[in-house]
Each structure stands twice: as structure tokens, then as C-alpha cells.
Amino acid sequence: MPRLFHVALVFVACLGDVMLPAAERSRAQPYNIVLIVADDLRPDAVGFAGNSLVRTPHIDRLAVRGAVFTRATCGYPICHVSRSEMFSGRVMMAAARRGPLRFEPDWTLWPERMKQAGWRTVYSGKWHVAGTPAAAGFASTAGLYSSGGAGRGALTLTTTPTGRKVTGYAGWTFKDEQNRPQPELGVGLTPETDGIIAERAVEALRRGGEAPIFLQVNFTAPHDPLHWPPGEKLDHRTVPLPRNFRPQHPFDTGNIAGRDESIVPAPRSADDVKRERAIYFRQVENIDRQVGRIVRALEETGILERTIVVFTSDHGLALGSHGLMGKQNQYEHTINVPLVMAGPGIPVGRRFAAQCYLRDLYPTLCELAGVSVPGSVQGASLAPVLRDEKREVRDAIFGYFTDTQRMIRETDGWKLIWYPKIATYQLFNVIEDPEELRDRVAEPEQEPRLKRMKAALAAWQREHGDPVEVNGS
User: Fold this and answer.
1) Is residue 268 within 8 Å of residue 247, measured between CB atoms?
2) What is the CA radius of gyration of the chain?
């Protein structure tokens, strides 16, 4: 029988009795799809990952009732590149060339494929890829938040509560369904931005319709600028620093002078970093509340049991780890993302250590929904892992950032980071040393491993037409 799913990609899984026996599923009613994506969310900044400081009950409940992938990665740690990989299911190597990032005409994007298969495709929230939602395959928008719509450099809030100048999202506004700017809802990020996105997403769910819905919800938090969300503040003095906190990074990763690193200039004091982290964690809790609103809407409209919910982020963030603040790096706190799925066809209460990319979501959800995967997709379906047919779908994952960073991480936890511009390598075992405090690149006994991993990285570069000169020696 065809398996058509309403897939809700949110921070985690669906609530309720979603694991219905096949005989009890309605053949006449395909499943819904709802994709919820946070922005700059560290993989360890949610309760289900063991963070006792951050209260995320709605996301945690989804994790309990769904499946968590503990080694999910973003591929390229920048918002628009990572999101482009999700849409296309491809490695966006054009970003490494520092050229314009666009979707090629012969690629079939994920929302377009779902629309072709009969889903009602709706987009809500931050738009940060090439083109427009309509060009990507979304039939309508609900709370579209995108660049433009106000005067050049315009911002409702020009400084953050920690006294930092706002340098991002200038001129960004909400757009109505006719793409008309709504500056009255705020210009740039405000404490209300994500609440508006959730409200519009809920309205789209309540409108219903005969066709199943493919709803993508893209929140802006906890991306900077960091403003206190509505609700209780957090005393920064109670916020712990990460064990791998450093005032500054020991060498130039290729982005030391970047915007993210300039928000809190190095060397950074523990107090400065704690102040940023306090607001960041409260923003994560606000995202959790918005996830709760969406799940309640699914319940109240009676479609939760026919909906797969996936929750994730475009990438993580350093936020003081390794002497960095931004996401332009290959450390675990940044390349890893929280990833939870729940709903029909998703096992309950499971954790999978299979290495995967965000671009794997496209073929995974297509397979679960009974939709054929276009030939342009390079991602690998995780459905065999969910069915316990495979433990892994690949031997290694690879990361890249501009022409300054490359990375390979193998299934046994060994991870090599290469900085081509400065001829520097780092070697970690992230299973034994998850915070990457022990660089083992200089250990003589690691020479055979280094040679093999360099060769594997070089092969990946050749396969994807990497503009960085291969160096497998």
C-alpha cells in the first residue's frame, strides 16, 4: 500500500498514538508533513540532549514519542547554504567558490516534488535561500519573513540588552500572502518575531483542505541579535560556561574577522559570554513554546495522528566554545544539529547514532511518504535506519566552509579538520572526547589513520568538484 505521510518537520516528533498498525490506517487519507527548523540551535541546548538549564518540555515530549538522530550534521555551517542543501538534497559546492548560490534548473526541489505528488505546500517564517517560495514549489506562504520591505538599514531595535549593536536583519519584514511588506509587525528581529511565525503557521493548519499539507516552519531564534523573548529573564550568573570555553581561538579558522565573531570581540570574558548565553537559552525556551502551539493545533484539528513531525536546526553555534562565537567552524557544537522525527512510520522512543546530513531529510521523507525521489537528489534516505535494516547509510560524513575548512568524521568517532589556507590539521575522537579538547594530530601512532582519512577527504573533494586543491599527503 502506498505510504503517504503528512510530515511535520519540527523540533522533534508527533504526539499521541501515532504508531497505528497498518491495518488501522486510512488508505483514503495520506499523511501530513510539517517541517520545523530553528536557526543557530546548538545540539546540546535542548532538554532531551541532557541540558538541565533549558526547559523545552514540548520538544522533549516529541523526542520521547519519536526518534532522535544523535549524530545529525549540517554539512555547511551557514544559514542560507544549509537551508539550500535541505531544499535541494544536494551538496552546495558553489558556496565553497564564494559565488552566488542558486538552484540549477534541472534540480527538483523538495517542496516542488511534494506539490507534484499532491501535497498542499505552505511556507512560514524566515526565507533565506535563492529565489522565492513560489519558485521553490510552495503554493502559499503564511507569515513569510524575508529581506526588504523597509528603508535601507532600518531596524525596530538597534541594540541588544547586552549593549551590542544590531548588525543583522536590517530591513527584514514580514510579507503578506501577496508579498506586501508589513513593517508594522517589526523591522528586523524583535521579541515577537517567532510568535508571529507560529501564529501564521497555526492559521495555515486550521484552514485545512482536502489535500495533505507539507508545511515548513522556519523560526529565527536563537540566531542573533539576541533579544529577551516574552517571559522570565535568566540571571546570567547562573549560566555555566561550556567546558571547552576559551577567550579566543588559538589560530585563524578562516572567519576570525567575520560578523559573528565581531559581535562579542575576542578575547572574550566569561561574563560577556554568559550574558549572551542567558538570552540565547531563553530564546530556545520560546521556540519550544511555539512548537507546543503548533502541536496543539495539530491535535485540535484532528490531524496529529496522520502527521509526521520533524524538528531540527540549520546548524549549531559556538557561543563561547573553543574561543569562537559564530557557526563558521567544523567543531561538534556547530556541525551537529538536533534532529527528531515522530509520527506514522517512525519508531517511538528510539535514538539512532547513524551519521546523517540535513540534506538526507528530503529522500527520507519522500520514501516514508511513498513519493519517488528525483535523480537530482544526492542525499541518502534514513528510512532503512528507522526500520532497523541498517545501522548506517554512509561510512563517513564531510563538512566544508568556503575555501578555508574541510572535515571528515567517520563512524568510529575519528574526525579530521583541515584548514587549507594555513596548512593546519586537527584530529579528534569525538566519541571519547566529545568536547574536542584533545587534538591528537601530532601523535606518531596516528600517522596511518591520518593518511587514510586525508585520502578519503581528497576523494570526496574530487567527487564534488571542490575548488580547493586536493592535499591527501
Assistant:
1) yes
2) 21
Q: Which of 127, 54, 79 is nearest to 289 (CA)?
A: 54
The three cell numbers locating residue 94? 558553489
Cβ count within 10 A of residue 124: 32
Dig out the grid coordinates for 213 from the structure.
Answer: 499539507
DSSP structural state of residue 438: -
Handedness of CA 332, 335, 338, 343 (dihedral sign): negative
Length of the chain: 473
pTM of the predicted model over 0.90 = yes
- Taking the CA atoms of residue 216, residue 217, residue 218 and residue 219 in that order, the dihedral angle to the nearest 10 degrees is -170
Maximum C-alpha span of the chain? 64
The answer to whether 369 touches 212, Cβ cutoff 8 Å, is no
Listed residue (7, 46, 2) closest to 341, CA to CA: 7
Averaged pLDDT score across all residues of the chain: 93
Count other Cβ atoms within 10 Å, centred on residue 135.
Answer: 12
The grid coordinates of residue 407 equal 572535515
204-239 pLDDT, tens digit per residue, is 999 988 899 999 999 999 999 999 999 999 999 999
Region of residue 93 (phi > 0: left; psi between -120 and 50: alpha; otherwise: beta): alpha
